[in-house]
């Protein structure tokens, strides 16, 4: 298998084509509510709590990444969730879901990706299988509004948010809350291109605008890298090493400065891929898969440029880079009631 790096870029999607971010189109996307792959046995509310502050996590991004020669992973998606609470912003969790070609949810033939209108008579979603979703974040819901008995939630926090800030106080008993929520990150389509020549392949309606956006991403990252002048003298030598690593990171990403994800394609059972580090603080060990005991290796890397697109005054999510390690066997859960297996994320931060 040829080693290859694929890059992910965010793209705005026209409201007319938002239906293509639904589960039945197996999307890769940033923000919004999850487009679940398996439509039953979703991660529990407890699983999607931040381990630092206990608040509910929301979707950061999901990437569709099937494995061609593995029948049990004909469909496969990695979901990355994050905490956006002020003074936290450090909670991240990763889940992997996969399905065979012939499954209980989707047609065995691929969807029509060129469609300009949605096929309304075919809309598989968790609700069709008796699963309740949180009105705010779209995750598994095990709570319900005690007044109207209609709207469901994943947590007390999101129930309060919906009541006070999302309009349910006025709508309760008369209508359900709308699908949009200011609690979520802005939604984008995630477009994947091969690293070599990706600039030539990407469609640019406005070259100047694209160049400006790339420069803004470069400036954004440079602003996040602390100056050596801010460090103590006794840390100088260590910082020089870190700066060499960071300079390599900057060189490798300069050509495609607005990349938000790096996906590593290689023979993960027999080969190795070194991701792009931003400093020399690397994981001492990578835990093996808790489900089957196999080794985990790097699968993809979330880049700090993503923060330029999803960040905001009311969203406190922060990282240098997120390194996603997954089971090299891409195993199925031993328990048939589990459809989402937790994987490992290592967080590198810019030193503040």
UniProtKB/TrEMBL annotation:
Any one GO molecular function term: zinc ion binding
Domain of life: Eukaryota
Pfam families for the chain: PDCD2_C, zf-MYND
Protein's UniProt keywords contain Protein biosynthesis: no
Domain MYND-type residues, every copy: 134-172
GO CC field: cytoplasm; nucleus
Alphabetized Gene3D superfamilies for the sequence: 6.10.140.2220
UniProt key word Zinc: yes
InterPro entries: PDCD2_C, Znf_MYND
Keywords attached to this entry: Metal-binding, Zinc, Zinc-finger
PANTHER family linked: PCDC2 PROGRAMMED CELL DEATH PROTEIN 2 -RELATED, PROGRAMMED CELL DEATH PROTEIN 2
The protein, known as: Programmed cell death protein 2-like protein
Provenance organism: Leptotrombidium deliense
């Amino acid at each position: 298998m040829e080693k290859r790096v694929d890059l992910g870029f965010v793209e705005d999607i026209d409201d007319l084509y938002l239906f293509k971010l639904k589960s039945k189109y197996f999307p890769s996307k940033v923000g919004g509510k999850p487009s679940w792959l398996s439509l039953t046995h979703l991660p529990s509310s407890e699983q999607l709590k931040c381990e630092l502050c206990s608040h509910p996590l929301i979707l950061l991004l999901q990437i569709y990444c099937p494995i061609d020669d593995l029948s049990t992973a004909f469909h496969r998606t990695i979901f990355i969730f994050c905490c956006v609470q002020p003074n936290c912003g450090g909670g991240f969790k990763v889940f992997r879901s996969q399905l065979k070609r012939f499954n209980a949810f989707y047609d065995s033939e691929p969807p029509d990706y060129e469609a300009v209108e949605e096929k309304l008579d075919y809309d598989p979603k968790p609700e069709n299988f008796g699963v309740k979703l949180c009105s705010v974040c779209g995750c598994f819901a095990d709570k319900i509004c005690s007044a109207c008995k209609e709207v469901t939630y994943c947590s007390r926090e999101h129930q309060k948010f919906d009541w006070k800030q999302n309009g349910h106080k006025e709508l309760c008993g008369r209508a359900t809350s709308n699908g949009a929520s200011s609690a979520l990150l802005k939604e984008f389509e995630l477009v994947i291109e091969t690293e070599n020549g990706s600039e030539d392949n990407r469609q640019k309606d406005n070259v100047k605008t694209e160049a400006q956006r790339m420069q803004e991403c470069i400036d954004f990252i440079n602003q996040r890298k602390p100056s050596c002048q801010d460090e103590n003298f006794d840390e100088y030598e260590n910082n020089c090493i870190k700066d060499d690593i960071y300079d390599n990171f900057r060189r490798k990403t300069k050509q495609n400065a607005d990349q938000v994800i790096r996906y590593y394609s290689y023979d993960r059972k027999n080969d190795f891929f070194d991701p792009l580090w931003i400093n020399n603080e690397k994981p001492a060990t990578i835990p093996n898969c808790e489900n089957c005991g196999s080794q985990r290796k790097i699968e993809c890397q979330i880049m700090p440029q993503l923060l330029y697109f999803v960040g905001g005054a009311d969203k406190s999510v922060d990282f240098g880079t997120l390194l996603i390690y997954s089971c090299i066997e891409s195993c199925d859960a031993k328990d048939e009631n589990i459809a989402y297996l937790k994987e490992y994320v290592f967080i590198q931060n810019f030193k503040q």
